[in-house]
Design goal:
Blueprint (H helix, E strand, L loop, with lengths): L1 E5 L6 H12 L2 E4 H11 L2 H12 L5 H11 L7 E4 L5 H13 L4 E8 L2 H9 L1 E4 L5 E3 L18 E2 L6 H23 L4 E5 L4 H12 L2
Helix pairs in contact: 1-8, 2-3, 6-7
The structure holds adenosine monophosphate.
Amino acid sequence: MIVLLLGAPGAGKGTQAALINKKYGLRHVSTGDLLRAEVAAGTPVGKSADAIMKSGALVPDDMILGLLKNALKTAGKGIILDGYPRTKAQTEELIKLIQNMGEKINAVINIKLTEKEIVDRIVMRRQCKKCGNIFNLRFIKNFDGKCPKCGSADVYQRPDDNEAAAKHRLEVYHAQTAPVVEFFKDKDFYKEVDGSKPVEKVFEEIEKIIGK
Ligand code: AMP
């Protein structure tokens, strides 16, 4: 099974992907996470991608395609793809890759959110280094600097989660990723969910799409 999660940065793709992974056992492949791992490991790809990511622009298609091919070598129970495709060219490459794997796309889920809500969410977003939990400071009363899930103090803010980069990422999204939505919009496996609802409600919508 292959599920694609679309939506602007901050719409909640990573959070929903983690829930889908837990319930359905599909592997979560996030091209942003793949790139961040390259940056952390200091590889040549990571070194070239670092400044581009911090600015909020997209890394070149050929750079991301190599990482993606590697990550998609085995489908197993299935894959949730988060953060790819982000351009028309990436969409075409993905369709070819999936065909070569003998798989098909089961669902394309677009998580919709207003622009104002997106920027607000991004600047308040934090992630736990220890357990990977993504959370939002707006929804936590008296934040004590610790991860609400595992209690670790190793909580960080992504370097591209500031207001300037967030606004740029949104511009990039409208200019380059909107055509991806257009590409899938008329397919019967394309569905939209309202990302402004609480996490559990959004997930309920997603369960209805994927099946219980
Ligand atoms: P994300 O974690 O999905 O928000 O991605 C963080 C950053 O990684 C983006 O702002 C881009 O710079 C880069 N990135 C992630 N996925 C892609 C992709 N499919 N194509 C190009 N750049 C990407």
